[in-house]
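Page 42, continued from yesterday. The earlier attempt failed because a stray header line got pasted into the input along with the sequence. Redoing it now with the clean sequence only.
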Amino acid sequence: AASGGRSRRGGQRGRRGMPASGSAEGGMVLGRSSSWAAQGTESGTNPEPVSSIISPLLTDMYQITMCYGYWKSGRHEVPAAFDMFFRTAPFGGGYCIFAGLSQVLAFINTYKITSGHIGYLKHQMPFADEGFFEYLAGLDCSKVKILAFAEGSVVFPREPLLRIEGPIGICQLLETTLLCAVNYASLVATNAARMRVAVGPSTKLLEMGLRRAQGTDGGLSASRYSYIGGFDGSSNVLAGYLFGITVSGTHAHSFVQSFTSFADLPRKSIALPDGGVCEDFVGLVQSHKAKLGFHTTNEGELTAYVAYCQAFPSSFLALVDTYDTMASGVPNFLACAVAMMELGYKPIGIRLDSGDLAYYSREARRMFRDVEGKYGFEGFAKSMQIVASNDIDEDVLYELGDKGHEIDTFGIGTRLVTCQAQPALGCVYKLVEMDGKARIKLSQDMVKISIPARKRVFRLYGGPEGLAMTDIMLAEEEVLRDGPPKAGKELVCRHILEPTKQDKVTPTKVEEMLGCVWDGKLLAPIPTVNEVREHAAKSLRDHDAKVMSRADCVKYPVALSDNLFNIMHTLWAAEKPAVDKGGA
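This time it went through. Structure tokens are written below.
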């Protein structure tokens, strides 16, 4: 046998430098680049909800009581239009990533109130006429029309993410479920996008919050929508199975703690990349540990690393903070890593899960450079991945950036999936037209005044880089009458609430943002999660970085056309009650 007990059963032993072997068996921090055919049901031409709990009864009781009120007054078939929108961008920023449309369409596509549902509603509403339940039993979404932004689009306050048209009875029944589908999805996607902006395009982001998420459905949604927002993968196995998201996982502290000495190992050998066997891998690791001058590390931890190398020789990544990061974890990793390099494998790196992440990452990289110099492994220090976790959020990412660090990948869990910085988005669903007449909701709180009428939304591009510069809403009637805005033609953009504020914009490109996605049936196949993710990345690139900035964020303008401004303010004046100066 060769030195270290390596038997030569075919092939050549790996030479110094970065071995070409070790790229198989998922040898990346984020596991295999997923070529798995996603098994989820919310894409394609006949979508169904992934979760069995999504049904017509996933709604608020007042939606059903309102529907009964419409039915009793003979108005349940009157055509209506609703807008779904949010009033304030989340996380103190200026934008949001629209997500959840695939869930909306899967729900719409399978909408059916079953006999079991009817039985329950009869129990809750014993006073209701039998004819109402017959009406409910026959309901579907064949008379519904939905216009929407493309899922993954950057969107802004006050503009309709969805426009829902159809008989008011069914449109009212859809409200809560649609809001539930969009609110959390868009919030998580936006949270993820902001973290992506914080670290830049090259640092890897891994979602690992399943155990801390708000329930099982929340955990699955968090994995899906953080990926859409710009994360590279997830620890959630079901998310990989259903959506084709790259899944990763190495080991936790319990794996390290479970070993106490080399006596716990059933064998000392390790398979070689060429098919041979190194008979005394344990001895090889111990010899390099001594050569490196690491004499007081935890033996159980080193044993755990050896066991992991034996099980995953092509993807060795060690969690190094079980006992002492710098005095034991990193040294033990390096002893194993050097041994693996000598055998022709390429170790992956380390994960830091506590302490001063910036300092530990810099010190670990320094130790990697020392090993590269000592052994002549060209490129070793740069190639070793440093993964960091431990209550990371957007603030921490910026703080680490300010300190300076050597972290290649962040694993982010609790504060991503729970959206700890802001736990709800606040999308609302407001009636904007009834029986062909524009409707408005007034409030003493100006931000809660709705924009009436069916609307179309256009994104205007211009400037030296051709980026998005304004979104403008037009009434449906004026688009049908005068056509949509055109590139090269000046537009008057009115401020929503302030009559004296307006701008004139001449776009170089105009993009219509609301597309018809459902008109009694699905009009086009629903994109895959990866396609939505790509669209989200492109939509972010279409905007000035200052709009996405955390500090000194530039507010992106959302305006009304002259015509829509007049519709809104005329209706506002007509519906506002006159002040009664009399008294009892």
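Notes: The longest strand covers residues 467-475.
Reminder to self: strip header lines before submitting.
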